[in-house]
Write a structure and sequence with these properties.
- By secondary structure, the protein is α/β, with parallel strands linked by helices.
- The protein folds into two domains: about 60 residues, 2,3-Dihydroxybiphenyl 1,2-Dioxygenase, domain 1, CATH 3.10.180; about 60 residues, 2,3-Dihydroxybiphenyl 1,2-Dioxygenase, domain 1.
- About 20% of the residues lie in helices and about 30% in strands.
- It has three helices and eight strands, in the order E-H-E-E-E-H-E-H-E-E-E.
- The protein has a four-stranded mixed β-sheet with strand order 1-4-3-2. A four-stranded mixed β-sheet has the order 5-8-7-6, covered by helices on one side.
- The chain is globular and about 45 Å long.
- This is Glyoxalase-like domain protein.
- InterPro entries: Glyas_Bleomycin-R_OHBP_Dase, Glyas_Fos-R_dOase_dom.
Amino acid sequence: MSKMIFVNLPVSNLKTSMAFYEALGFQNNPQFTDETAACMVWSEAIHVMLLTHDKWRTFTGRPIPPITSSEVMLCLSCDSREAVESLNEVAGKSGGTADINPQQDYGFMYNRNLADPDGHVWEMMWMDMSAMPAE
């Protein structure tokens, strides 16, 4: 089996979160989805597990942080600057928040940050490795 990552996120409304991630281009894997959790697939290696708060609490007793806090910023690479723009726009129209941090444009690398309906922070990033400075 190849190496994969499953990012587990507590969500307050599973259907709302599923719709948000589907709008961004994630696909649902029904094999790992029920009324308490949904597996949303970005690529063969990257999966996001959306877990109701009750389901989340079966994995850990640690508190779920408030929507206004950030513990991590998850970064996904995109195929183009236009894809970064599009995902940021879709997030704002699909129940999330666009541009939660200032966009960064270094010429060879471009990113914008968004948040899902529960405040989980995602950085959408495009990079042209051939244009990257030597140092």
